[in-house]
Every structure is written in C-alpha cells, then in structure tokens.
Amino acid sequence: MKGKLIFKLGALATILSFLLVMPALGQTGQTNEALGKQLKDYKAQILKDLKISPDKEKALVAVEEKYSLMRGEIVDNSKKAWDNLQAVLAAPKPDEAKIKEAVSAYIDAQAKLFTSFKNQLDEELGQMSPIQQGKYLVAMEKWRQQCMPKVCIPVTTK
User: What is the CATH number of the domain that holds 101?
Assistant: First the structure.
C-alpha cells in the first residue's frame, strides 16, 4: 500500500513538473518546437533503453500524438482565458463578476491541461511493466530537471 502511494506521488510530481514547464513553453514558438523535438527524441531513446516491444512502442507514440493534439487546443483556450483575465483586470474599474468568470475559465483550462497530462501518463504506464514504469518516471524527471532552467525565465515585477 505504501509503495503504491509513493509511486502515485512520484507520478503526480512528474505531471506537476510538466505543468510548470507548459506555460513557459508558450514563450516562443522556437523554444516550444525545440523542446518538443528534444522530448520526442529523449522518449524514443528511453523506450529503446527500457526494451519496450515494437507494438507497445507504436501504441505509446500514438498516445503521445493523441494528447499532443488535444493539448494544443487546451493550451490555446488557456491562453485566451489568461488574456481575458488580464484584460478584465486592466479595466479602470474591474467588474467583480467578470473577474470571477475569467478566473473560473482560466482555472478550468488549467484543470483540463492537468487532466490531459495525468490521462496520458496513465495510458503510457499501462503499456509498461512496474520496473519499466519506475525507470520511465525517473528518466522523465531527469529530463524535466535538465529542461526547466532553459524555459523558466525569471519574471520581475515593478
């Protein structure tokens, strides 16, 4: 029981790590494309290292493509909700009802993004043995740690 909890907490930490990266990925298309290619290449190498069978590898690639397409729309909606929230807050006399609605829309978009990562991870791990699952999560966390300094740009406020 304790092992399952630790495993689930590790998986959740990985998902949350990706969520932290996603807003920064929208900073520039070039960064987004470069990191996307790096991640795809990295995952391909991990699958080879884990000795994933060709049929499962094909299924994992299909899962990646499915959720990548889905997240494109989710990220677009999240950006629109964020822009709307900023616009509502920038009004000379912000309307609390509009702010509440904008906050709700943004939180909903972020929740959908989180859910898409969790569902993808569940599907990916479902194709692997427990040992492969653990090694996959460790490898993905290592990638995230290497990637984070590249995309997290400090924001200064005045």
Answer: 1.20.120.1490
Helix axis angle, 96-125 to 2-25, nearest 10°: 120
**pLDDT tier for residue 76 given thresholds of 50, 70 and 90:** very high
Which contacts of 98-105 are long-range, i.e. CB under 8 A and separated by 24 or more positions? Answer: 105/81
Q: Are 78 and 110 in contact (CB under 8 A)?
A: yes
Range(s) of the domain holding residue 43: 2-151
The pTM of this model reads 0.69
Would you say residue 156 lies in a domain?
no
> What is the spatial distance between Cα 66 and Cα 44, in angstroms, rounded to a whole number?
16
Asked whether residue 157 is domain-assigned, the answer is no
Helix ranges (DSSP H) in 50-129: 54-90, 96-125
Q: What is the DSSP letter of 93?
A: S
Contact 27, 153 (CB under 8 A): yes
